[in-house]
Design brief:
The complex is a heterodimer of chains A (236) and B (287). Chain A contains 9 helices and 9 strands. With 236 residues, chain A is α/β, with parallel strands linked by helices. In chain A, the strands form 2 sheets. A 6-stranded mixed β-sheet of chain A has the order 5-6-7-3-8-9, sandwiched between helices. Classes of the chains: A alpha/beta (236), B mainly alpha (287).
């Protein structure tokens, strides 16, 4: 049984579809990379999986004991966050919010969890620092800690390395790979095809035609070949 | 000095209405400062202005209809508008700022139009009426004890709700998508926030008038943000600033014999510059 299965999913806004017929499945331990041209609807697909956007047709099925709210999500940064007054700890612990239910405040166990998570991702010494004064890579680690506090089962990442320098990008990919090896399933949107092919085991291509399959299948598929050639041209 | 104290005593504290006025203004200031932090951060600074004009329009309608308690109409209408404005948020066809501006100007125009078409017999002149609703009453001695109690109850309610939902409000303000994706009912909390804002605004209208309500909502929050850098410290500082500026402003207006609303806003403005200066100096020092 897969964690998440998408069946004939069609996504868009206000009833107008952007992409249709998306089929994919994510099992425990999978690393799925979603690739495709800008504006093809990658983020919209992810938002639909998260329940932030209503599917136009088709469905998303959660299985293998995964509940709808047990999803870790690393969104793209918003403009609001750039000057938001918040300490690192305040942001990280907000990942525990779904655990609190109607209880107004975080308990000791949740605070300890947050501390441990910051330790794991190497940001424990930033605990009291203002979030907006951190570097891009540090901010991503903070948001990643927050996402992991809500679940270790599956993590959805929307362009996790956007705007990071090469060194920090490599670090970020390393952290994600590590999490995946420890058993967290990953769904990652990226426009960086080479790292998608390096780290992921499954590829979902969204564009004028869609493709879903293993990395090896993608490399020999017509869609994959075309996309890899244009990608190479763009990169050099 | 003695003269000032005399003025404060005989012109203000001597009468129960003076004490009432101080209680009401401090409570309203507290509520608006707490809500102000999340509103400013969510780029809804002008919602206070828009909603207060809606309240102004609704009160004009109430006056025309001949209702004695204008809050009966103003409160529900304002609440509905607040819900509509906050709900549409990101996905609306008419984007946030334009929607607020539209409702704000529209309600103001209709209110003033109605006041001119059907001049109420109770009060003297239209211009005095309008001036009071826009800039607040000259002195706060018109409050009845019922209004004071209503204000106390609603304020306590607003502060309690804010404290109980503090962590949720933070999460939704910082990142609504993440909060929703992980199962927070952001819609419910947005609805609660909208209702609270509407209530606070209708209460605050008596104090500073509809044109200056934005000041009560925005100034404490942005002043606090100049100096403090965590959500908790900004919230606490903003509440303290708002309460002290308003209390000081009310007393100052008694001493100087100036209109209450603009005096409070003047004090807020000065405090903002002080905090801005402190924040800038701190920044320079760090570099």
């Amino acid at each position: 049984m897969a964690l998440i299965v998408s069946k004939n999913l069609s996504v868009g806004y206000d009833g107008v579809p952007i992409v249709s017929d998306i089929n994919f499945s994510v099992e425990r331990g999978d690393y799925l990379a979603i690739v495709g041209e800008n504006g093809a609807g990658k983020t919209t697909v992810m938002k639909t999986v998260l329940g932030l956007n209503r599917a136009i047709s088709g469905e998303i099925v959660f299985g293998d004991g995964l509940k709808k709210n047990e999803i870790g999500y690393l969104p793209q940064q918003t403009a609001v966050q750039k000057d938001f007054p918040a300490s690192v700890f305040e942001v990280v612990i907000s990942g525990c919010l779904s655990k609190t239910g109607l209880r107004p405040f975080y308990n000791k166990a949740e605070k300890r969890l947050a501390d441990e998570m910051m330790e794991e991702l190497g940001i424990a010494d930033l605990k009291k620092r203002p979030y907006r004064e951190l570097s891009g890579g540090q901010q991503q680690r903070v948001l990643l800690s927050r996402a992991l506090l809500s679940t270790r089962e599956i993590l959805l990442l929307d362009e996790p390395v956007a705007g990071l320098d090469p060194l920090v990008t490599a670090e970020m990919y390393g952290i994600i790979e590590n999490l995946n090896k420890k058993g967290t399933a990953i769904i990652m949107i990226t426009h960086d095809l080479s790292s998608a092919l390096k780290y992921a085991n499954k590829i979902l291509y969204i564009g004028s035609e869609t493709f879903f399959g293993t990395k090896e299948e993608f490399k020999v598929s017509p869609v994959g070949r075309r996309f890899m050639i244009t990608g190479e041209k763009e990169n050099g | 000095m003695a003269e000032i104290l005399d003025r404060l005593y005989y012109g203000f504290f001597y009468l129960p209405t003076g004490i009432y006025a101080l209680i009401v203004s401090v409570l309203v200031a507290l509520c608006s400062a707490l809500l102000g932090v999340t509103l400013v951060l969510r780029r809804f600074s002008f919602i206070g202005d828009g909603l207060s004009h809606v309240a102004f329009g609704a009160m004009a309608v109430a006056a025309v209809v001949g209702l004695t308690n204008q809050m009966l109409i103003a409160m529900p209408v304002t609440i509905v508008c607040a819900i509509l404005l906050l709900k549409t948020g990101g996905k609306a066809k008419i984007k946030g700022d334009a929607a607020v501006a539209m409702i704000s100007v529209g309600a103001l125009a209709i209110g003033y139009l109605l006041m001119n078409l059907f001049p109420s017999s109770a009060s003297g002149s239209i211009s005095a009426d309008v001036c009071t609703t826009l800039f607040g009453s000259f002195a706060l001695v018109t409050l009845t004890s019922v209004e004071v109690w209503l204000c106390v109850v609603l304020s306590v309610l607003a502060v309690t709700v804010f404290i109980v939902f503090y962590n949720k409000i933070f999460a939704i303000t910082f990142d609504e998508n993440f909060a929703v994706a992980t199962g927070t009912k952001a819609k419910v909390y947005n609805l609660i926030t909208a209702v609270l804002i509407a209530v606070v605004i209708v209460l605050a209208m008596r104090l500073v008038g509809s044109l200056l309500i934005s000041a009560l909502i925005i100034f404490p929050a942005i002043s606090a943000m100049r100096v403090f850098k965590t959500f908790k410290s900004v919230t606490i500082c903003s509440a303290i600033l708002s309460v002290s500026c308003t209390a000081f402003g009310v007393l100052l207006s008694v001493v100087l014999d100036t209109p209450v609303g603009p005096t409070i806003v003047g004090v807020d403005l000065i405090v903002f510059f002080v905090f801005w200066l402190v924040g800038t100096l701190k920044g320079v020092k760090l570099k």
